User: Fold this.
Amino acid sequence: MPSRDSKTRKFVLAAVLCGVALALSLADTMLSSAVAFLPGLKLGLANIVSLYALMTLGLPYAMLIVLARSLLAALFSGNLTMLFFSAAGGAVSLLVMCLLLRALSVIKVSVMGGVTHNLMQVLVAVFITSTPQAAYYLPVLAAAGAVSGFFMGVLCKLLLRKAHLYYSAIKNPQGF
Assistant:
């Protein structure tokens, strides 16, 4: 059974990661609106944090981060409709990434997460607007999700490597 200190550390790390994810999400929203050549297209910067949290803290903490980030980003941006798109896409893509994590590389898992996120967003759009034609946009968003997922996966892999080196140095300061 994990110690109370271990649980506290995990919770604090999850809170910090939620703040980072929120900042990245809001920055991503501003960037996408500034260079919006395709409506609804975002880089998915906060998904780096989601995947990192999934790999280091586990599914429950990662899901908490995704849902809290989605809610706070919607509140801070003043766009509550965004909550439905973000929470559905984030939660389902996180579940898919969790299922694939043992079988695929971090980068492939991230690609699948990006595609799944956009698939869910299209399904939410079809449901909210009662417009099945919104599904015609899926190939564009799936391709964008795959490209974005690739780059976010590469960044997450680098982050994991740096974090591992950092924690190794803390545990064994003479080794560095």
The chain has a mean pLDDT of 87. The longest helix spans residues 138-171.
